[in-house]
Amino acid sequence: MAQTGPSQSFGSLNAITTPSPTQSPQVSEKIGNTSGLAAPKYIEVDISEQRMYLFLDGKMHKTYTISSGLEYPTPRGIFFIKNKYPNAYSGIYHVWMPYWMEFYYHPLLGATFGIHELPYWFEGGRKVRRPREKLGSPSTGGCISLDFGKAKEVYNFSEVGMPVYIYE
Questions:
Q1: Cβ of 9: how many Cβ atoms within 10 Å?
Q2: Hey, is 80 helix, strand or coil?
Q3: pLDDT digits (tens, 9 = 90+) for 101-137
Q4: Angstrom distance (rounded) from CA 149 to CA 24
């Protein structure tokens, strides 16, 4: 999660809305939750499975293990990639997040949520990485983290404006 304004106190994050049944992606028997036809190219995230699916031209292109929000829940719904940066900094957690892809701004937190590689920081002059053993379970501040190298693949696949479907 990247901070974009001053830190603010907030209550329950249950105010995050999810799409109504008429807005949700179509359920199918395929891997993932959509039929692969929600858009020509998109990202799908299943929080309950801690999995990400990339769809291209109606077919699943790749799948990855992720970590979603623990401290703050990763929002559910239909979003779009707002921006991409090779490396973004979180002023909240004081970490660098390689291959940043923003998909949501949370007004109560004054912070953005994104997809990125496992973060790193500097301690005693050396680079320290978040352990990859946490992948596959919620462990982030609300963002979606991917393993080393995998986030670069998603970054290269993604485009600003591309849909991101996130569901439980």
A1: 6
A2: strand
A3: 999 999 998 999 999 999 999 999 999 998 899 999 9
A4: 30
